[in-house]
Amino acid sequence: MYALHRLAALAIVATATIALPADARAAEAFDVWLKGVRTEALGRGIKPKTLDDAFAGVKPIPRIIELDRKQPEFTLTFQQYLTRVVNDRRVRKGKKLLNTHAELLRKVSEKYRVQPRFIISLWGIETDYGRITGGFPVVASLATLAYDGRRSKFFRKEMMLALEIIDQGHISAKAMKGSWAGAMGQNQFMPSSFHAYAVDYDGDGNKDIWGTLPDVFASIANYLSRSGWKNDRTWGREAKLPADFPMKLSGKKIKKPLSEWSKLGVRRVDGSALPTRDIKASIALPARKKRSPAYIAYSNYNVILKWNRSDYFAVAVGTLADRIQSR
User: CATH number of the domain that 49 lies in?
Assistant: First the structure.
């Protein structure tokens, strides 16, 4: 009987040993991994105090893995998306903010050669004019995704860049909040975009895309400008295609002067002729259907696609900019 009791007790202990250390082993493995990250960061010249602050209490966030693994399928049609993103409330607010910040936007526009309405439009679509910027701790989010392994190389690099942003004093580790994937601030820059395009426009020594509008606006404009923006033209316009339009001519790879598109029967959406200025353009069909809304897309359309590689997004930015500008 003693032997049976002893065996039963050992079985309970064994079960506990199997179940409990699983979490402990996972935590230990993450801690070991984080030490390696710390060593790499120190080698990049990041100060120990910065790392102490940034890594205090950091552990994998299960919700981020869920969001990364189970991103919902994009089920909205193009028209549903456009109606949702470019809604009347956002247009009204954009008009008001365009007027409120007119002087600042004029100065930023003159420096970076980007029209104010596009700066406001991107701001509005990315974070609803700074209202929704994300509440996840950026370092912990990036650490979770870097440790996870699915895209570890990309997110480890972004995490190092985020640590450098903190180390440079632009923001504290505690205040660095963003989306679950690490996009930050009122213009939702990844750390790599921050390093490439963020601007200290007000000259206070910090590139504050979280709370300083001059920096937010200038950073958006700088991104567009350095990506090839042309301020002597718009993004494009909705168009009407002839019934026999060859679908093989649609897409950003096919560029023709407006005069050639006119000869092929392409018109403005109201049926009037295309502009006479002979710049090159493509035909964008966001819904990928011949009878879906079609757009004459200029070079600035492709610049917007560098920000976000989605035709839905690019058309929404252009449409909101046009509606903000209209009376």
Answer: 1.10.8.350
